[in-house]
Amino acid sequence: MAEQRHQDWDPRAKNVQQNQIRAYDDMRQTCPVAWSDYQQWTLFRHADVMRVLEDHDTFSNAVSAHLSVPNGMDPPEHTPYRKAIEPYFAPEPMARFEPQCRDLARALVNELQTNQPVDVVDALSRPFALRIQCAFMGWPDSLHQPLSEWVMKNHRATLARDHAAMAEVAEEFDGYIRELLDSRRQAGEQAPDDVTTQLMQEQINGNPMTDEELVSLLRNWTVGELATISASISILTNYLAHHPALFNDLLAAPGQLPEAIDEILRMDAPLISNRRITTRDVEIGGRRIPAGEKITLLWASANRDENTFGDPDSFCPHQNAPNNLLYGAGIHVCPGAPLARMELRIFMEELLKQINGIEVSGSDAPERAMFPAGGFNYLPLQFLGSDPKTF
Questions:
Q1: Domain tally, the chain
Q2: 51-69, pLDDT tens digit by residue?
Q3: Which of 5, 296, 305, 309 has its CA 20 to 30 A from that of 47?
Q4: pTM (two decimals)
Q5: CA–CA separation, 222 vs 73, rounded Å?
Q6: What is the CATH classification number for the domain harbouring 35?
Q7: What are phi and psi of 230, to 5 degrees?
Q8: Nearest to 246 by CA among 387, 358, 376, 365
């Protein structure tokens, strides 16, 4: 029998939204398996999240009533889609994309105004995420602004749980993608040989993907890429502004960037959460959860669990790497992790080549992003200029 419901917390409360990370730290200590009318169940502890990730029979990804490729699928339906997309993030395509990625990062960093307050989100985070996503997919620059506005509308609709607005936002994105698909079909053999065109040629169980499947897949890739890459850059630059010794260490040894990036993003999550739905009655942390209930896996809390990482704010990349859930775990581990890691590494390499330090700007207070986004909405920092360096 399900336990009597009472509201353990309000994920949209002002004190939560002002600083999600600290609020989740508090909940992990006081109510690690929590009910809210907004999210239903939320898991805050690393061990509880891992239990869910390792049992996809009990905790299904098919949360939404709408098609979600492949994020919202379970095996065996999930398997052929996953098999089709994983090669796009293999070492060879990553190596081919790396020079273009570096050119885009270098061009953006070269535009950076140094020795004066700069809003990192406006100057670096969002532009890089938009440019790099469009470049990887083979999409035109004319999509930068519409996609930027679309991401913000998607965040607002998700936070409000406004289903009508969410449907409208999804339809808007579908329109952009269907235009891209139609233009490639009309071009025939003259269509660009890019990731989007290649995906149109993929087959699932012997059949081409439908437009509905392609749009869903590309929507999931785009939401994930734009939101998390933008959040990651704001988080990384903010952390280095507050930890100048680490900045100097990375300047002297940029080869340490990959593990440093993963560890910083463990402490301050760019992706806040994912969801599952129970297929049977289950007990977690002493709470009885009936079948058919939604569960939010809070990466932003699990990756800071003292029982797994000790002091969650202690920078220990080698010690913490095995348990870091930055890209998830299990059969739904992020397939795009190699791309994200490469993009962030290259961006930070190019940034370090151009500056001697990052300082907190006293001009304005930063503004943290609100759920479902991580990172910052506004982040004034000052980048100390230098002569360009080579690594």
A1: 1
A2: 999 999 999 999 988 889 9
A3: 5
A4: 0.95
A5: 18
A6: 1.10.630.10
A7: -60, -50
A8: 358
